[in-house]
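Lab manual, section 2.4: Encoding a predicted structure.

Procedure: take the sequence of the chain (197 residues), apply the prediction step described in section 2.3, and record the output as structure tokens. A sample record is shown.
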Amino acid sequence: MKRTLLSIITIIMMSLVITAGCSKKVVKTEAEGKGAKEAQKVEAVKPEAVKHEVSKPQAKEEVEVKKEEAVKAEETAGKQPAAPAQAKGIEDIFFDFDRFSIRDDAKPTLEENARYFKEADKNLKVVIEGHCDERGTSEYNIALGERRAKAAQKYLIDLGIDQSRISIISYGKERPFCADHNEQCWQENRRDHFVTN
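Recorded output:
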């Protein structure tokens, strides 16, 4: 009985080993087959591409332009997106850590911004973007950025700018101006940014 049971277990174990070994070989064979097919496709495409390049000579200027574009693309790769353009005469204002009250040094900037809006076309509208530094949760910073934008909006309205010309949005910490992790950089990110449209 023991011998029969041992024989059955041995047969089962050998079947599992053989089955596992066979499935690996099949998978490997399929993968090799796919790789060979893809290599054939690549080799089939290469001669046509070479013929096309050889048969179409490019002017020297076109080559130079393409080189310049490639250099510019490499330079901009991995950089933070540039802040939206703001009109000449409009400046950002900055905030203290975890605060949304208008600082004394920001009031003259807001007064200059208000003067610009009064002198500009009456159809000119402004979006005040509230921004925060990287510290704190995303939810908290979205709310703080909104309070900062509302504070600047109220200040401009108090200076005589029509409320219908001003809208606000908060980006919280999602669109930093500076990517370093230090106080100077965080100060640059705690701001209201003014975008005209």
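Check your result against the sample. Strands lie at 93-94, 126-131, 166-172, 191-196.
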